[in-house]
Design goal:
The complex is a heterodimer of chains A (241) and B (293). Chain A is of the alpha/beta class and 241 residues long. Chain A contains eleven helices and ten strands. Helix content of chain A is 35%, strand content 27%. With 293 residues, chain B is mainly alpha-helical. In chain B, a hairpin with a 2-residue loop joins strand 2 and strand 3. Classes of the chains: A alpha/beta (241), B mainly alpha (293). Bound molecules: adenosine-5'-triphosphate and magnesium ion.
Chain lengths: 241, 293
């Protein structure tokens, strides 16, 4: 990694290891996340993308150096990592199904008021559904709640895991637009299988294979190269099916 | 008709007692995944201390009982909070060890209570009215049942209000569903653990004083025997579900009363059969959901 990258990194990870149920799922992973825009974390199913994100947050046991905005966060428990300003939008949304939409959002407010206006502007639909149980929302609406929830507080970095998974094309566009708007202010580390979305949003990529980083670099260059086929199993320049 | 009514109301009264113990068990398990076998000890200790203080203030009167109940509530809450802070917290996410510690605590404290108050039950005095009956449609209902039912309903109402209206209530409800995601929103869920233990302990503590009124005695093993029924209630109701615990508490106690009366004292057997039936048909209990920890 170049010096310039170092200077402008919001998050830098060195020698990260993590295991789940006694199995090593993240092995000696090192990368940096730029302090603007979207950095995509890519790789085939099961390579350890979700595990890497969970390791950063301390949701699963990890070792290694994790530096966020100049201070070390690798010994902190999950809630402290998040309190430092790292927001998490998990794979499969994980909204609280028995709580209302409003309660889901209120839970995420750590200070006094929260960013109501931002959330209302990005997701006007949620306002009408404030009293609805989140478990009865459609997949797309649940994804909106998961995103809105993390935006209730000011964040210095967002970790977003497959936000378009299982969504209809129109909703994928909506989520992409929302993320684009968010990324103008807040850097995002995005796990995403839909390469069109990656192309739309990301300026750079980190590619995992077998729990290790195998490539980092410019997003367009990567997506237009043969490496896409080698590491993701799809043909260069084509959209993910 | 009057017999049925008598069994029904008596059953609901006993169910109220079960609920006071089961509500805490269910919330604690729901949020933390801890089966708290020390819960009965909170009840017993509260029963003893409530009685000791109450009788010194004014033995066998309403004032003495009221003081006893307040002391019982405080005792249960404090004992439970200390248990969580000192023993459970260190074993965060180590469920087997947590069970072993609470079982050990349960056994050790019963021995301690026997050492202090002896192993024989101690008869207690209660306000005269509680020893009398009220005639309802021909059934003579012991008056202490009304006290039990009223207190349990009040506790249920207060806990529901707390869960629905406060920030910690929100955290607890969310945590019962998905604890990891609560911490991933930046919330220190351990504080909610202590609060849940304290609330459960307070309810059990009140239950301890009311149990001594119901049985007319305090005893070192009082909590332990109630704990068994409370666990059955918790499982039938669905681990983690407060309303499930309330419904199951009444159901279990009523079934028990009816089987004892009509089927020649087979109440306990009927309860176990009910447990088996529920587990076969709906393993998560009446109102239980799958939870992610
Ligand atoms: N709870 C678990 N128990 C056992 N193995 C697990 C567990 N969670 C994850 N794994 C394993 O860890 C590896 C990495 O999983 P992870 O979820 O991080 O992959 P991923 O890159 O996010 O995959 P996907 O693209 O399918 O979401 C996989 O081989 C998976 O089977
Ligand atoms: Mg994943």
């Amino acid at each position: 990694m170049s010096e310039q990258q170092q200077d402008t990194a919001v998050l830098s990870v060195r020698g990260l290891f993590a295991s789940v149920a006694g199995q090593q799922v993240v092995e000696d992973v090192s990368f940096t996340v730029a302090d603007t825009g979207v950095t995509a974390l890519l790789g085939r199913n099961g390579v350890g993308k979700t595990s890497t994100i969970k390791a950063l947050l301390g949701i699963i046991d990890r070792t290694g150096e994790i530096t966020y905005r100049g201070s070390s966060i690798d010994k902190l428990p999950t809630h402290r990592v998040v309190q430092r300003g790292i927001g998490y939008v998990p794979e499969d949304r994980e909204v609280f199904g028995s709580l209302t939409v409003e309660e889901n959002l209120r839970l995420a407010i750590l200070g006094d008021s929260g960013n109501r206006e931002t959330v209302d502007r990005l997701f006007p639909e949620l306002r009408q559904r404030a009293k609805q149980q989140a478990g009865t929302l459609s997949g797309g609406q649940q994804q909106m709640v998961a995103l809105a929830r993390v935006l209730m507080e000011q964040r210095g970095l967002l970790l977003v895991d497959e936000p378009t998974k299982g969504l209809a094309p129109r909703i994928v566009t909506e989520v992409t637009e929302a993320l684009k708007a968010v990324a103008e202010k807040t850097p995002v580390l995005l796990v995403e299988q839909n390469l069109q979305v990656v192309r739309d949003l990301a300026h750079s990529v980190i590619v995992l294979s077998g729990g290790r980083v195998v490539h980092t670099g410019d997003a367009r260059e990567f997506l237009d190269s043969d490496l896409v086929h080698r590491y993701l199993g799809v043909t260069a320049g084509k959209d993910d099916a | 008709m009057s017999t049925i009514l008598l069994l029904l109301i008596t059953g609901v009264g006993l169910g109220a007692l079960y609920f006071l113990v089961a509500s805490g068990l269910s919330l604690i398990y729901g949020l933390m995944g801890v089966l708290n076998f020390a819960h009965g000890s909170f009840l017993t200790l509260a029963g003893f201390l409530g009685w000791e203080v109450g009788r010194r203030v004014s033995d066998g009167t309403w004032a003495g009982l009221l003081i006893g109940m307040l002391v019982g509530i405080a005792t249960g809450a404090i004992a439970a909070a200390i248990t969580e802070l000192v023993f459970i917290r260190k074993l965060y996410n180590r469920h087997i060890e947590q069970v072993l510690v609470t079982v050990g605590l349960g056994l050790a404290t019963v021995a301690l209570f026997e050492g202090i108050w002896g192993s024989d039950p101690i008869r207690i005095a209660k306000p005269a009215w509680l020893g009398q009956t009220t005639n309802i449609l021909g059934a003579n209902i012991p008056n202490d049942r009304w006290l039990l039912i009223g207190c349990a309903a009040l506790v249920l109402g207060l806990i529901v209000l707390f869960l629905k209206k406060t920030k910690y209530g929100l955290i607890i409800r969310a945590g019962v569903e998905n604890r990891t995601m609560v911490t991933a929103l930046g919330i220190d869920v351990r504080r909610a653990f202590t609060i849940v233990f304290a609330i459960g302990g307070a309810a059990a503590g009140l239950g301890g004083v009311l149990a001594s009124v119901y049985y007319g005695q305090v005893a070192a093993h009082q909590g332990t025997s109630l704990l068994i029924y409370a666990f059955i209630v918790t499982v039938i109701g669905g681990l983690g579900s407060l309303s499930g615990a309330a419904i199951a508490a009444v159901l279990v106690a009523v079934i028990q009363q009816f089987a004892n009366f009509y089927l020649g004292g087979t109440g306990d057997l009927a309860v176990v059969l009910a447990l088996a039936a529920v587990l076969l048909v709906k393993p998560t209990g009446l109102l239980g959901k799958k939870t992610t920890h």
